[in-house]
Amino acid sequence: SAAGEQIVAGLDVTNIGSDRGLMQPMLDRLRARTGRLPGRHLVDGGFGRAEDIEWAHDQGVEVYCPPTQSKHGTNPYLARRGDGP
Question: Which stretches of sequence are listed as region Disordered (predicted)?
Fold first, then answer.
């Protein structure tokens, strides 16, 4: 989509050092406010927890997120055991 079609739909301030685990609560709040979830959701790398991405997929939301950087020299693009669709 064009940049003109994108909006910031929610924000939150926490004292947690990571965004991990916050995607589902953010999308739940968005649904409560608007009555629906977005078809596509662009997030930064901190939101990239596999469980949240799979939950969003089950809700019909396509998540666009950079892969987590590997700390062990492995390829972050390869499928891992337990990965969903």
Answer: 66-85
